[in-house]
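Question:
Write out your own:
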Amino acid sequence: MPRSKKKQKSISDKYTLVIVEWIDIASDASWVSEKDAQKMECVTCIEVGWMIHEDKKQIVLSSQFNDSDCGNRTVIPRGVILDIKRINNE
């Protein structure tokens, strides 16, 4: 008699889909005046993914999954996060 397969939870049942707005380092190797260099600012970034872990220090997102693994992961320190929008999983 064949074994019944246990239904796996879908990714949306296990994790929350989020849009994270965060500040990143900006860098430029070109030569500019000191005045122009002083105008340089950090970059605001947007990351979308499934939040697979969060703690006081950081969040971990993944945007790719297969039957047993996750890929394309991003770790974002809490200190640079401006906003986290949770997307309805329904």
Notes: The domain at 11-87 is CATH 2.30.30 (SH3 type barrels.).
